[in-house]
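Quick one: structure for this chain?
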Amino acid sequence: MTATIPIDSILGMLLPLSYDNKKWLADRLYENIHADSKTERMKARLGELSKLSQGWDGNNAQPVSTRVCNNMQAVLLCCQDNDIEQWTLFPDINGNLYLDLKSDDVDAGIILSDKSFSYFTDDKDEKDIPFSPDILLQVLRSINKIAA
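Got it. Here's what it folds into:
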């Protein structure tokens, strides 16, 4: 069995830094461990978006709903990096999340709300599909096949 020692303990032994500076450095090191994981990066992005306040756009945009963030978190828990590799997460002004596909082959987007989601591709437009992490993941994967 291998014992693990928290990195902040190791830093405490090696570097003459204040506690706050050691914590900051440890957090940055842990952050880089997951930097290669698209899922972890999107979870971090979701965390940032969940902190937006009323008027984040300089006008009257709503903060992203807690339920919408929980829905996206549920999707991220059951997906793999390749499922979301080409997708970027954005807030929308109504408190929802927008997933945008980066592809030269197809234009696609998904709007996730608290109880449903809608999506579009070049040749399809589906609205108000009841939210389920599995169904949204199936849609992501089917759009990814078109974009491949």
